[in-house]
Amino acid sequence: MKLGPQLIQLLSKTYEPDSLINMKFKSYDIAFKTNSAGEATLLFFGKLDTNEQIKGLRYVRTLVKDQEGRILKDHWELKGKAT
Questions:
Q1: I need a labelling partner for 46 at 20 to 30 A (CA). Which of 22, 58, 60, 64 fits?
Q2: Percent helix, strand and coil across the chain, each rounded to 5?
Q3: In this predicted model, what pLDDT tens digit does every residue of 6-20 receive, in sequence order?
Q4: How far apart are CA 48 and CA 46, in angstroms?
């Protein structure tokens, strides 16, 4: 499953650094971890189960910047199932 432009836009925002953020996106539950700069780097996408864990898919973000902070590469890759 490919991430849509609305979800990519949501994940491109800056959030609280080094945290796990849970929210709803359309009819899905999402959770993502942020790095020290507040950028989303790990995404769990699916439905919450009874143990408050998301069952669905796991994505990892490759974010490469140059020395001046310009983004050279920004790519989300599907890594498999999230259990």
A1: 64
A2: 10, 55, 35
A3: 999 999 999 999 999
A4: 7
